[in-house]
Amino acid sequence: MVKAIQVRETGGPEMLVLADVELPPPGAGEARVRHAAIGVNFIDCYFRSGLYPSPTGLPFIPGSEGAGVVEAVGPGVTLVKPGDRVAYVASPGSYAAERNVPADRLIILPEAISFETGAAMMLKGMTVQYLLNRTFKVGPGTTILFHAAAGGVGLIAGAWAKALGATIIGTAGGPDKCALAKSRGYDHVIDYRSEDFVARVKELTNGAGVDVVYDSIGKDTFPASLDCLKPLGMWVTFGNASGPVPPFSTQILSQKGSLFATRPTLFTYIAKRADLEATAGDLVARVADGTVPIEISARYPLEKAADAHRDLEGRKTTGAVVLIP
């Protein structure tokens, strides 16, 4: 038996219940990982609330991200061995002291990167990697708008986009969060609580707008995000922190400048092992050399997972949040 957080009914954070669960030996293609740290992400809240259906039904163990040590491997596993330091993003199940993970989802974690950093960086860091390099290719001459600039993804994006040579505008709530984002690479940060971010973007770009908007907020920033774009610009909606974007007619994209819109997910971008290795390899290199710092703002014991969700959804956190088994 291992300690784990279960969701037996979808709903609020109080639905996160500590339990003892059976963990069978790793099956074919699996590795058993003893967690040293577990990443907490908004997608975990979506599964817990029922916004996203659990792929395994109820009850289920939430969490998609973790880091630790391989304890055992199942038949046919050659990518990792017992004793290896690893990190991963995989299907839900990481809110546990130990779990079985498909071995082809694991990456070796260098000694230079701590387990807490490894657990905090995989989902958020690889999300930034594909957003800036594949969804929309960012480089010198690119101007971007990134919502939730002081969040876990936003802080990584600021440093990474700056390293790529982009001009970066962010939004954040309150002076402290704006100052934090500004210190992590953003050229301009707009306080959405006191400023009209559309008007400020127009002002900062001399009326031109930005090339791409990265939007993890959802309902509260739509359709205003579209008004920040240049003609032929791209709106990348990759999260729903304020609730899902309501249904809309694609005619609005034509009316606002022949815009492009996409709803990407990390799991599509890393579905192939080669893509996972390339995406994670780029991330690991940039974290190891200090180009992309991973900010961990809060640590909670595993049994306090509900508190972590409350603080995350209440926008009380900045950077990354981890659970410690």
UniProtKB/TrEMBL annotation:
Residue ranges of every copy of the Enoyl reductase (ER) domain listed in the record: 11-323
Record's GO cellular component terms: cytosol
Signal peptide: none
Example GO molecular function: NADPH binding
Keyword field: NADP, Oxidoreductase
Taxonomy, superkingdom: Bacteria
SUPFAM superfamilies documented for this protein: GroES-like, NAD(P)-binding Rossmann-fold domains
Gene3D superfamilies, per database record: Medium-chain alcohol dehydrogenases, catalytic domain, NAD(P)-binding Rossmann-like Domain
InterPro entries, per database record: ADH-like_C (IPR013149), ADH-like_N (IPR013154), ER (IPR020843), GroES-like_sf (IPR011032), NAD(P)-bd_dom_sf (IPR036291), QOR-like (IPR047618)
PANTHER family, sorted: QUINONE OXIDOREDUCTASE PIG3-RELATED (PTHR48106), QUINONE OXIDOREDUCTASE-RELATED (PTHR48106:SF13)
Protein name: Quinone oxidoreductase
Organism: Prosthecodimorpha hirschii
